[in-house]
Design a protein that fits this description.
It contains 12 helices and 8 strands. It is of the alpha/beta class and 258 residues long. Helix 7 crosses helix 9 and helix 8 packs antiparallel against helix 11. Keywords: Methyltransferase, Transferase.
């Protein structure tokens, strides 16, 4: 029941903000998108699955280089909005309403599975990775890009609390070690990875998913109350007692199914 409530909250939050995820700079213009092409070296015969496609930025990046992209999302309004933006440009993207933890595809269907800036909304990362491995062909590739929690437990709690205060559909950012364990359990071998810092402009970032000024103030006050060690780790910039920006950890990883 709890998982169902979380997924309903995801659909509510993203349904109301569908257009913003198409235009969001951090989603649309990340330098990880060109890296997808560099890392994957896509082939024109490939069939690709993009899980939790959001604004469709991964699907849009890969579609010119592959045979077919199945672009899936749990939120119908999000998917319909993305299709509206992309269907005039690309004839090889198909849009499917799908739960990342119960994918409606047969075993061994895809050459590549991708998922970008979404798994922190999934109630069961273990179920998601199990499904990824199931629908991949042998030697198929999986690219995960997501915000990750630091290994330091206090930093982990801070990061996930900030995210939850800002976005009620947030579940948890995993650590890289937690992801590695799930990969190992599901025969996915890490072959390339990149850790980086990602900067958010606080006013834009906090406004995207909050529903009131009171909620925005709550997020800001929580950040302002952090100790210096936390403020330094997350590079929190404060001017006139207002948060201007902060950084989080992001991880991009390429796996191969063994």
């Amino acid at each position: 029941m709890e998982d169902k409530n979380i997924k309903n909250k995801v659909k509510s939050v993203f349904g109301k903000n569908a257009e913003e995820y198409v235009s969001s700079e951090s989603h649309a213009k990340g330098d990880d998108l060109p890296l997808l092409i560099e890392w994957l070296q896509p082939k024109s015969t490939w069939v690709v699955l993009d899980v939790a496609t959001g604004g469709g930025h991964v699907a849009k990046t890969l579609a010119p280089h592959v045979s077919t992209v199945f672009s899936t999302d749990l939120t119908e309004e999000m998917l319909a909005n993305t299709a509206k933006h992309l269907k005039t440009q690309f004839q090889n993207i198909f849009y499917v309403i799908a739960d990342a933890e119960s994918l409606p595809f047969l075993e061994g269907t895809f050459d590549v599975v991708t998922c970008r800036i979404a798994p922190h909304h999934f109630p069961s990362p273990a179920s998601f990775i199990k499904e990824v491995s199931r629908v991949l062909k042998p030697s198929g590739r999986f690219v995960l890009i997501d915000n990750v929690a630091p290994e330091n437990p206090r930093f982990d709690v801070f990061m996930n609390t900030v995210e939850k205060l800002r976005d009620e559909s947030h579940v948890r950012c995993q650590t890289t070690e937690e992801w590695r364990e799930l990969f190992t359990q599901n025969n996915l071998e890490v072959i390339q990875e990149l850790a980086r810092k990602k900067t958010f402009k606080f006013p834009t970032w906090v406004a995207r998913t909050t529903e009131s000024q009171e909620q925005r103030d709550q997020v800001e006050q929580y950040i302002l109350a952090a100790n210096e060690e936390i403020k330094n780790y997350f590079s929190i910039i404060v001017e006139n007692n207002c948060v201007q920006s902060h950084q989080i950890d992001e991880w991009m990883v390429l796996c191969e199914k063994r």
